[in-house]
Amino acid sequence: MKRLAVPALAGVLLFLSLASAQAVEILRWERLPLAVPLVVGQERVVFIDRNVRIGLPPGVGEHLRVQSAGGAIYLRASQPIAPTRLQLQDVESGALILLDIAAEPAKAGQAALEPVRIVEGDATASRGGAAGTSSGANPNAEDEAPREESASPSTPVRKRETPVPVVLTRYAAQNLYAPLRTVEPVAGIGRVNLRHDLALDTLLSTLPVRAQTLAAWRLEDQWVTAVRLTNTSARWLDLDPRALQGDFVAATFQHPTLGPAGQSADTTVVYLVTRGRGLADAVLPRISRVNAMVNLPPAGAAGASGIAEGANDEK
Questions:
Q1: pLDDT (tens digit, 9 = 90+) per residue, 243-301?
Q2: Which of 243, 237, 269 has its CA nearest to residue 169?
Q3: pLDDT beyond 50 at 2
């Protein structure tokens, strides 16, 4: 019995040591900054299971190495860092998560810090404009598509308080012009692939401007595409949405005018909202110059055809 008890006890201790070595600290994001202490010279891993952009305060990047891959963030401090705040922004939804970090020198006999996993807390709320959400309802449900709560015909259908084009346009403008920390998260919004070489010659054909796509997002069945407009003339231009050519639900200019080419005010952005399709299928096709000679038959073929017709007439 003693010979069997010793190996069994050793196996249990080995299992516990392995379990403690692979332990992960769970942090719940409930819109309160999460404390993630660091030790100088040790790398700490933060699992977040989403694609995020990391915002660093000025000067911190010189002493903090930050890498992101596959839903994990790797933090390694080379020098002590005073308490400071990092911003993690979800690339798809724009939601922010705040981390309070501080790096201190390692102490004698101090164990390595365990990895951290960030999960959504029950109190996490998002914004995006739906009316009629009660205090006991899911706070994330305000950005979902309108749906019935039950099959009862007397149950009212929740409707979005803010129209989808307004939500999309505001979100796109904040991503392009506002600081990272001020972008309002909206559940359901996702970044979509966009052709940057899309021909937009017909978008504002009456004005001397150059148009180029920047980014696009989608919410429900509507898209918003940010298009950069650059003045190519030496005069001021007034921008009028009625001059836009295409099938758009809404169009909003970041600025009402464009300055002469070469000035700081010669560029702006227009936000184009489309329904059921992206911008590529909503703009007018480019019309090339018509060359009537392209559709004419070759001269030899035309002569041979005439001879054959004459021979048939003689018969």
A1: 999 999 999 999 999 999 999 899 999 999 999 999 999 988 765 555 555 666 666 55
A2: 269
A3: no
**CA-derived radius of gyration, the chain:** 31
Taking the C-alpha atoms of residue 257 and residue 155, their distance in angstroms, rounded to an integer, is 48
Name the H helices within the chain. Answer: 2-21, 164-177, 299-314
Residues present in the chain in total: 315
- Mean pLDDT across the stretch 160-182? 84
Instruction: Determine the Cα–Cα distance for residues 52 and 69; give it in Å rounded to an integer.
Output: 10
Measured between alpha carbons, how far apart are the two ends of the chain, in Å? 119
pLDDT at position 156 is 46
Q: What share of the chain is helix, strand, coil (3-state, %, to 5)?
A: 25, 30, 45
Q: What is the pLDDT of residue 5?
A: 47
DSSP string over 139-208: GGGGGSPP--SSS-TTSPPP-BSS-HHHHHHHHHHHHHHS-GGGPPP-TT-EE----TT---TTTTTTS-
Closest to 114 (Cα-Cα) out of 56, 29, 27: 27
Give the mean pLDDT of the chain: 77
CA–CA distance from 149 to each of 77, 137, 186, 204, 262 (Å)? 49, 11, 21, 44, 56
Compute the distance between CA of residue 159 and CA of residue 137 in angstroms, rounded to an integer: 15
Q: Which amino acid type is present at position 20? A: S
CB 215 within 8 A of CB 176: yes
